[in-house]
Description:
mainly beta
Amino acid sequence: GESKTLAVRGGFGVFHDVSANGGVQGLIYNPPFFSELGFTSNNITPVRTLQTGFPVSERPDPATYPGNLFLNELDQEQGTIQMWNANVQQEMLGGVIWTLAYGGTRGRNIQSKGWNLNSAPPGPGFNTASRRPYPQYNTFNAIIGRGTIDYKSLQFKAEKRFSQGSYLLVAYTWSEALTNGAGQNVGVGQGVRYWPYLPSEDADDGRSDTDVRHVFNLSYLVPLPFGNGQPLMSNASGLTEALLGNWQLNGIIRARSGLPLAFSMAANQSGTALGNRPDQVCGGKLSGDERDVNRWFDTSCFVAPATGVFGNAERTLFSGPGLVNVDFSAFKSFPLARGPEVQFRIEVFNLLNTTQFANPGTVVGAADFGRILSTINPSRQLQFALKVTF
């Protein structure tokens, strides 16, 4: 017969990348449409005033322009993103709703930015003009639809609503996010990319900067059973009711594994303008009891490659520190016979005052290589609030 406690859902869609050309890489910055005027001034003796104005700036000549250029593909194929998901939801074990889901994304021809098409290939000297495809120019900062994204995830969720108003949610996600180094220049580094001089077809393939393999969340809401209309102290009044009645406890516990690390060389001896990665001569990953803030991985496994060649390390490697955070709050409501409801809140962020470490240094040759020198989350914060609902 028909089950009223089981639901099976699924979906599939094909979408197109919006291919936005925004940011600082617009074609309007190419000569002869754009020029810059620089001068040094101060508040005592200004170099320029409203009376003097600015000198006329000469438009640069594209034929002799020595700076950087910005490029767009003329025949760029619009990016295509396929997304799919399937989930099974079942109510069982005393009203607990269990959900098991699988989701995935596959993107091809995704527009990405910052590809240098005028870098010299690997070889002697640093990006010497004589070895560049167009020696008279410097960097070609190209917007190209060659990005790839692949994502898959297995998701589990259990939630329970109780008759007294309590609520409990537990969720866990395992996922994998991979790209070929496609970036949008939004402040997120993708590691050193070797394209267009890939030493192997998959040299730029690796984990996305947002690839978090394990994520766990637990949240709860618990009204305390004290005060008028509650199972305990139902006849409370006056000061007792004011202090103990109508309290609600809430909390969120978050835990995730670390973000991937992208290694690079402090001194780029590849001969290109693309940067370089180190040679990886051994695994480098340390066990949990071997790691600390001064040695997150085995730094001896990463060495400088030979001059004029690319290092063999992958674009992204193993993970940095994970994160565990507990937030807690307690709400006290003061219902009024007429008029607004007043709610007093105690909110504690990072309740256990857990130190959340940033990623270690990953630049071979830098002083902080393999070391963690900063944190990413504030220490415990306590705040009080008064909320009026009307």
